[in-house]
Amino acid sequence: MGRTVRQLAQQMRDLHREIAHLQAELVHGIGEFDTTQGYELDDYRSTAAWLRGELRLHPREAAHLLGMARQLRQLPAVDAAFTAGAISQTHVAVIARTARQIGVEHVAASEDALLDLALDSHPGRLRVAAQHLRYCVDPDGAERDAVKAYERRELSVASTIGGMVSIQGLLDPPGGSIVLTALDAVMPPPREGDPRTAGQRRADALVELCRRALDSGTLPTVNGERPHVLVTVPLDTLTRQLTGKPTNRTGTGHTPGEPSNRTGTGPTEPARVSWTGPISATDARLLACDCAIIPAVLNSAGEVLDIGRKSRIWPTAIARAIGLRDQTCRHTDCEIPAQHCDIHHRVDWADGGPTSYEGGILACRNHHTQLHKYGVTYLPNGQFTIMRN
Known about the structure:
Elements: H1 5-35, H2 47-54, H3 59-72, H4 76-83, H5 89-102, H6 104-109, H7 111-120, H8 123-137, H9 139-151, E1 154-159, E2 165-170, H10 173-185, H11 198-216, E3 231-232, H12 235-238, E4 271-273, E5 277-279, H13 281-287, E6 292-293, E7 296-298, E8 304-307, E9 311-312, H14 316-326, E10 341-345, E11 360-364, H15 365-374, E12 376-378, E13 384-386
Antiparallel strand pairs: 1-2, 3-4, 4-5, 6-9, 7-8, 10-11, 12-13
Helix pairs in contact: 1-3, 2-3, 3-5, 5-8, 8-9, 13-15
């Protein structure tokens, strides 16, 4: 018979403890090797150099393990718990790092309290307690580290070869706290029926924050205009005048299975968005769903011949009336309030859908994106569901 769930759980506990025990043995070996200068037998100049050369460790990891080995000699209670597999190497690394920062004697004085926390909690909570101790014992050193952390801040934003946008960065604790607080405000807890991962919800929250900042009108102007996302889209692409092939995409206002009556004589040009380049017709229609439109007439060389008057898609009075009527996102499993929703045309504006009280429906940014991506089914009760394959 296979293992029961309880047996599997116990096996994982035992393996975790054994891993910690083996890690402790490695650290002890490094400590003894360092004390006896065993690295000289292989003509290395230091234990760290030996670890890098013989165990092929990254320099940071080699220094990390060597630091733990040296600090543990003076922290017997922590060493004993590590040897028994009661705490992990990450717990020990937090305590050892604190000892290097403020001195082993200060950590030894608080060793029992730190060890109790390590035995009962994860390394993150232990790190917070160790930082608190550091601020109490060595506030000047903590301030210096805060300046160093601030100077290490960076943000990289680049387009990938596949057209995605890669964001990588590092923030100091105050800046990171501001970002996390803002993300948390627009990132509700996962709901039943929401297929997004935590990472996807976090990505959507970041986009939502930026969208609200752009909508607020409080950002500095750029070249005399409020900052805006510029989408250049040919009329055929926006109105989906394709090559005569029928479409049954329900996210565009068509009934499932009912072919579109729009036809064209050839392939359409892609839409283009500022900063990132070409985007799909579906994404262009999503951006055009609630925006200001500047119609432009171009010649065959793409030169502007005439620009029409900018017009707002949803007048304030109609938007308010729809918000009062719908109250929340009208997806069957969503209760995002009206002030955080878009107004979606039931029949796409590009397909002749009216910008009217009856023609609009509230959709939160997540479900608004999904209905354009996957398609939508409108229900008799005024709600909608997302069509998925």
